[in-house]
């Protein structure tokens, strides 16, 4: 909209588009004003020759030695317009020239005229004219040139446009940061961030400093230069950074690490300088760099495999801006990454990123809070238990939970439901974890039987062994690439013992053991199980020090910056010992699984046949077949003893 002056009239400023609009109006106007009905009909010499023979031609005017205009007698015009079989002749004008045709060359035209005049005896006057082209014709011929010149001017103006333009060649060194001002209506605060309680507590110090700067300055304290948010994808690092800016009520500049990387040399460093210059102008403010590992990767690693120094130049400039000779008073740098192990040590030192804030996966309480946020816009079943949903999603990030809520709503709408219920959420969780159901996949009866006993083997071993994860349900309906699946609810523990890991290995090998015991042969269906077991066994031996032969030694590099990237940190003899211990460990777990299945052979068969008939079996069915788990019985006994002791005290 054009701005209005005091008088109420719009303040219209001259623009190059006005010129184009004026030219277009002129062309359209001249086309409308011109009398198209008086234009002669295009024809050829054969038609004109017949008219000359009939004595219908009054005269012929040759223009610019190229074309000829034919003027017919008045009575001939009426005759052709009314009685002619040729439709084009019926459209000829009453006044002026009726026909026009191209003569080729003047000599051939004169010879043809002489010949037809001798044959017909009719003489036709011929006139020659050299008319100059009109201004409309000249304008039309110049239009292509004007068009290309206009495009060139438009592109040049776009490239040279300053101050946050679309990013042309003249603006390539400018930082493309998104600015969220403190007066923005879409301000995010800690109320909008569910969970992350520990991260909020740790980051509140920065918020408090921005709010009450004088309190810290009086004691001689300095504001932290930066804080690095580290955690898996989807845990809310970017949202938390926005909440810090919203809570402190200061401007927030957001940019991605990949925005600094460009094909032009020196552009990254230039954008870093421009970014901090913008931040200083808005100080106090928060500068957020998302995915900082794009430019903060450790320098000097595998230099022979990378000839691009642009990333290092950008990182050097960032290091200088954060803690060089420049002073960035009131500018706090927040950065987020899920690969902190590959960042340069100079970037991680105190004085640049003074602290690392771990933004981990939410626990059960935090998942329930996140569900409460994402369930607000949904029409829910009043009986839906949100604590149950939190228990069903261990290891889910905030983004995963948002996806579960949306997927559940889609499933409910697909089945024409009025509200989103518990079954829809369970189906959404299954789809996100395992993939889409493939009920139409062609599986023979023999394959289906093998899959049923395989999954029943997993379920049986995990149910009987005390330290294995509790079972939720078993299915032989194909999902994604899997032909069947057993769903578990892992305990949210911080420390895992060797007994826990060994029982989990046995439960994972239960499917293969079941196939061998039942059918006497092995199949390729256990590929994923074997892969997981092998990785876990190697971790137990080489990382966790759970082998007597190898010893209490860990070859795990948690920093990811080991200089021994292409060599093993142990000898060939130790490697052989590790291999032997892994085989021994897997053999022990496999023997344990076969022993459990042999002792509970009848229950295994009953569970497998139930799977074949129903395709899906839940916890209640497994409990009916095998009874309660030993761990559940012990827990119930402890609870009963606790209640009894409480009653005695009262």
What do these coordinates show?
- With 650 residues, this protein is α/β, with parallel strands linked by helices.
- 50% of the residues lie in helices and 10% in strands.
- It has 24 helices and 14 strands.
- The strands form 3 sheets. It has a 6-stranded mixed β-sheet.
- Strand 2 (57-63) and strand 3 form a beta hairpin.
- Helix 18 (498-508) runs antiparallel to helix 20.
- The longest helix has 28 residues, at 572-599.
- The chain starts with 15 loop residues before the first helix and ends with a helix.
Head-to-tail CA distance between termini: 78 Å
In order across it, which strands form the biggest sheet? Answer: 6-8-9-10-7-11
Largest beta-sheet characterization: 6 strands, mixed
| Class derived from helix and strand content | alpha/beta
List the total number of helices.
Answer: 24
- Overall mean confidence score, pLDDT: 78
Provide the helix percentage: 40-55%
The Cα radius of gyration reads 42 Å
